[in-house]
Amino acid sequence: MSGKRKIIKWSLIVLAGSIVSIVLFGVWFMSLLPPLPESAKDIKAISPSDLPFLTENIVPYRGKILAVVTSTSQMGSSGKSTGFELTELSRAYYVFQANGFEVDVASPLGGAPPVVIDGDDMNEYDYAFLNDANAQAKVKESFAIKDVDAKAYQAIYFVGGKGAMFDFPDNEYIQSLIREYYESGKIVSAVCHGPAALVNVRLSNGELLIANRQVSSFTDKEELLLIPDAAEIFPFLLQDKLIQNGASFNEGFMYLNKVSIDGNLVTGQNPWSTWGVAESVIEQMGFEPKKRNITIEENTISVLEKLEAEGYREAKVAIDDFCTRDAMSIDRRLVAMHSIVAAMDFELKKAVNLTRLLTYSNGYL
Question: Based on the domain organization, do 48 and 189 belong to the same domain?
Answer without folding.
Answer: yes
